[in-house]
Amino acid sequence: MTNKGAKIRLPRGKSSLSPIQRKLWAVWKQMHADGLIDDGSSRGLNGFVKRSLNDDVPWNELTNTQATLILETLKQWQKRVGK
User: Which residues, 6+ apart, have CB-to-CB distance to 16 below 8 Å?
Assistant: First the structure.
């Protein structure tokens, strides 16, 4: 059927990230694109989380409360620099 133009769509897998974690990742990547941070990788975000929370929890394992705290910190940082 694909020879005749049919497109096969695979079901999308459910993300293991919560919506707040996805937003945190998006803001982190945008800050990297804007030149506010040097390391836009997951490792860079983990380092920021470790310094902010004084806890060695990977960003994708944060509770919603912790992720919200980090997200608000990043948003305040963006506001301070005017981006």
Answer: 60
